[in-house]
Amino acid sequence: MTPERFKRIRQVLDRRQPDLTVLLENVHKPHNFAAILRTADAVGLFEAHAVFNQGPLRTSLVSASGTDRWIDVHVHARVEDGLDHLRQRGFRIVAAHPGTDAVDYRNLDLTQPVAFVLGQELDGLTPQTLAAADQCVVIPMSGFVTSLNVSVAAAILLFEAQRQRQDAGLYSAPRLEPVLRARTLFEWAYPDLAELCRKRNAPYPRLDDDGRILDEIPR
Question: In this predicted model, what pLDDT tens digit does every residue of 144-157 receive, in sequence order?
């Protein structure tokens, strides 16, 4: 671990937004799932959530994104479980769905805790998900098409959230709770050693400002 690499890891971590996320309902095509996770990393999401009613999450869906080290993907057995989990943590549930009550996504305050819920292109979101949403949003379009690829829609929504949050200064200082930040920093910098520590039930060694390990490494 070079000081330059450690600095880069720390800079990325300190821009993570713990109160912005996505919940993907049956987005099972690998290229769409991977593209959404790449966008999630690009705008600074700390985690993502997924529900697969059509079977378990394939590991390849996460690894195909190339972000499996940087974005925690939480898989829920039912969409109700995912929605309850996010709501209990204070997230506003915003469904990407062009219903009659949907508002222009740019008119929402996305500096507050927000979880965007997106479904697969063919069927969209299930009725129970739409009923549980706090708000539906629409991406205005001027052509003949009435919907976008789900990964494109996710990118539009997330980059608008990034724009608003940058204007509000939410990327200018670390936003993760200090203990979580320290743990994640070690896991990103030394993933193999972090796994060894967990197997040994040992605490992570301390790091200095250049990423050098200060404590004894467990054997």
Answer: 887 789 999 999 99
